[in-house]
Specification:
Elements (H helix, E strand, L loop, with lengths): L2 H11 L6 H12 L6 H8 L8 H13 L4 E2 L9 E2 L6 E5 L5 E4 L2 H4 L5 H6 L8 E4 L2 H9 L1
Parallel strand pairs: 3-5
Antiparallel strand pairs: 1-2, 3-4
């Protein structure tokens, strides 16, 4: 199912009107796989809808996450970021530039959750987050 069909189906399933604002926000998300923040999306959407408020964008993104249309990416002391990739995947986070990169790894998909954690929590999904320096930041570090 393509992203636009998914958008319409999720809205219908959760009785959300498909408004021009929601559609524009979703279209921006669908075009960006770099885990944008609400502020980044707000800046892009203002070019199309200059009267839209940041609050509308932020609330819409949280609603999209709540209904399973997008996912919240892990926080790392930066503004909350959103993930449009709903397939199982993992993240690499660059601690210098803040880039968040998706990666697939079968071994990470199958990590054994400790029984102590399984007994205490209901696990809905699992995602590995690796932290370090991306290639560009590593190259910059070597130059210094």
């Amino acid at each position: 199912m393509n992203k636009i069909s998914l958008f319409h189906n999720k809205c219908k399933q959760h009785r959300l009107k498909v408004t021009p604002q929601r559609t524009a926000i979703f279209n921006i998300l669908a075009e960006d796989d770099n885990h944008p923040s609400a502020d980044e999306i707000f800046k892009k959407i203002q070019m199309k809808l200059p009267n839209i408020s940041f609050d509308t964008v932020n609330r819409t993104l949280l609603t999209f996450a709540e209904i399973g249309l997008i996912d919240l990416a892990e926080g790392h002391g930066t503004p909350r970021r959103f993930d449009t990739n709903l397939q199982p995947h993992h993240h690499f986070f660059c601690v210098k530039c803040g880039q968040l990169t998706d990666f697939d790894c079968k071994a990470c998909d199958n990590l054994k959750i400790p029984e102590k954690i399984r007994a205490k929590f209901l696990i809905n999904s699992q995602r590995v987050v690796l932290k370090g320096l991306c290639d560009a930041c590593r190259a910059t570090k070597k130059d210094n």
